[in-house]
Fold:
Amino acid sequence: MEIDIKSLEPSQIYKLMISVIVPRPIAWISTVSKEGIYNLAPFSYFAGVSSEPPLIAVSIGRKETKAKKDTWKNIEETGEFVINMVTKEVVEKMNITALPFDEEIDEFKEANLTPVPSSVVKAPRVKESPVNIECRKFEIIEIGKMGLILGEVLKIHVKDDILNEKGYVDTEKLEIIGRLGGANYCLVTKNNTFTLKRPDKR
Ligand SMILES: Cc1cc2nc3c(=O)[nH]c(=O)nc-3n(C[C@H](O)[C@H](O)[C@H](O)COP(=O)(O)O)c2cc1C
Structure:
């Protein structure tokens, strides 16, 4: 079956894109508005795109009113944000923070999560998350209805004892969630990961 994208409605394209490009990590982004209100929401159009310089990309849409989502607005206005990785333990809370709350509402309070200070940015980190990545706005590129946000990684906080001697974080110990299509998710655990060494040069 071959699907011609040009023949589809945006909602059909969205469903196809998010169910074929899988699994996607979730950037659970905390920001603070210029009025000082905390904001937290998940985004899975998310990827690490460069290590030199260290950059991430996340694509954020608009509300039903066509206004920029609060996360996009806060990053644009303050230039700072934190990406918190989502684990099995906090997945229900992550889902609460995806609700379209008004910008005056603090999602940390709505989801009963604990904001803790970051080192170099004003946006708080999520205490319940084992990995927090402090970022500064690098560039925002408006593409159609979306804001493609490039963020420079400034600090990475990882919970103690999961960085191994080779410099990798022991991913299986974190039980990080990935997003699939619709309301489906996957879980990274020891039982469903494997090692594949690169073959020797032929
Ligand atoms: C797992 C998950 C992934 C999501 N990914 C995105 C995304 O990549 N881009 C986007 O605009 N919205 C995404 N959403 C929806 C936003 O989280 C939602 O619109 C939220 O209310 C935005 O909050 P804000 O206005 O406080 O920024 C996702 C929701 C969930 C549950």
Q: What stands out?
A: The radius of gyration is 18 Å.
